[in-house]
Amino acid sequence: MNKKTIRDIDPAGKKVLVRVDYNVPMDGAGKITDDTRVRATLPTLRHLLDKGAAIILASHLGRPKGGPAPEFSLAPVAEHLSALLGREVLFAADCVGPAAEAAAKALKPGQVLMLENLRFHKEEEKNDPEFARQLASLADTYVNDAFGVSHRAHASVEGITKYLPAAAGFLLEKEIDFLGRAVGQPPHPYVAIIGGAKVSDKIGVIANLLTKVDTLIIGGGMANTFLAAKGYATGKSLVEADKIGLAASLIKDAAARKVNLLLPADVVVADRFAADAVHMVVAADAIPADCMALDIGPASGAAFAAALTGAKLIVWNGPMGVFEMDAFAKGTFAVAAAVAASGAVSVIGGGDSVAAIEKVGLQDKISHISTGGGASLEFLEGKVLPGVAALADK
Ligand code: ADP
Ligand code: MG
Fold first, then answer.
1. Across all residues in the chain, what is the average pLDDT?
2. Among all ligands shown, which has an atom nearest to the Cα of 236?
3. pLDDT band at 30 (very low <50, low <70, confident <90, very high)
4. Ligand 1 binding pocket, CB closer than 6 Å
C-alpha cells in the first residue's frame, strides 16, 4: 500500500488518536451482542501500547440526532474493551471540549482513553473544520482503523488529517490490501459472486468487476432482473422493472469482454414470501406466474461451486437467496461451502453475506471478511475512499 501505516510511524511517548468503528449492535440493556468490530482493532491497539504510545479512541455509535443521547453512549463499549485488553480504559464524557481536553492532557504512555460518541456533535458528519481541529488538538498523531466509515468525509475521518500526521491502522491496511487485490491487478482466474436483493444497490460494483473478472456469478433477488432481461417470465419475483434494460446491457457487456456470466439455471420458488411457504424447484425459464423465486436451485448451486474450481481469487458480495429463512438458505450455504473449500484467496463483503458465512461457521476458512458493508461496496466500485485518500503517502 502506498499510504503510511502504523509500521511507518514511531508512536513512542506520543498521544495517538485512533479512529475506530465501534458501532456495535447492543441489546436494550446496553449489552454488546457482537463485538467483532472491537476485537478487530486489538492488533493496532496492542502495537501502539507496546511501542509506548498513549491511545485516545474516537468512534461513533448508532444514529443520535446530533446531540447527546444516553442510549448511544460508548461507555459500555469502553468497559468491554477494558475486559478484552486486560487494562483500564478511561472514558471522557464528551469527545471535544473541557472534559476531553483535561482527560487527554492527563493521559500517560500505556494508558487508553475512550471519547464519547462523535455523533453527539452534528459537526462530525458535516466535516466541520473547527470540530476537526478540536479533536486533533487532543493528540500528536492520528491513526485511521475505521474502514467502515472511510467512505465518508467526516471530521474524524477526513478533516482531522489536515491537522495531524495520519497513518492507517492494521485493520484498515488489511482491508485495503485484500479489497485492493479485487480491483487492482487481480490474479487469475478471478471469480466474483454477486447477489443480494437488488441490482440497483450494486450496479457500480458489477460494472467495475466486469472489467476485472474471468467469471461473474449472479444470484439472489437481483438475478430475477437478469432473468427478465433474458425474456423469461419471473412471476411474482422481486424484479426491478426499470433495471431490466440495464441488466440486458450488462449481459451484452460481459459477452463483449468474454466474461463468463453465470445466472441461475434453476430456482426455488414459493407461493409467498414466508418461511413456511409452499416451495419447489423449477427451471429458471419456467417460473410459474403465481410464484416468486427466493433462492437459487440445486443445479445452480452445483454449477456455481464448479465455476470456483481453480480460481485464484474469489470476491463474494450478496446472498444467493433469502437465507434468513431455512427453506431458502441452501443456495447461499452451498456457495459459502464452495468458497470456503476453494483454496483461492477469498474476500467477502456485505453485512448479510458476512452474517451468512458466520451462520454456517465457515468464517475461519475465508481469507478476508470485510468489516465495512458500504465502504467495501464503494471500494469494489473502484471509488477512492476519502478516509484512505486523506492518509499520508509513504
Ligand atoms: P449484503 O448485505 O451482503 O450486501 P444485500 O443487503 O444486498 O447483501 O442483500 C441481502 C438481502 O437480500 C437478504 O436480506 C436476502 O433475504 C435478500 N434476498 C436474497 N435473495 C432474494 C430473493 N430472491 N428475493 C428477495 N430477497 C432476496
Ligand atoms: Mg445488506
1. 96
2. 1
3. confident
4. 196-197, 201, 220-221, 238, 293-294, 317-319, 321-322, 324, 350-353, 373
